[in-house]
Amino acid sequence: MKTNIVGIIIALILTFVGMLSVYAQDTKVSEVRKVDAFSSIEITSVGTIYFT
At the top level of its lineage, which domain of life is listed (predicted)? Predict the structure, then answer.
């Protein structure tokens, strides 16, 4: 009986964490800046932008 309750609690926790990750996927961050002073913009990956 104890193992069933522990298993159910673990399953509920994992389900909750899974639902949080699904809702977090639609989160978007945007930032607008003037880039006139830069000669080039190098984008190496999502979230990493080097202004040179």
Answer: Bacteria
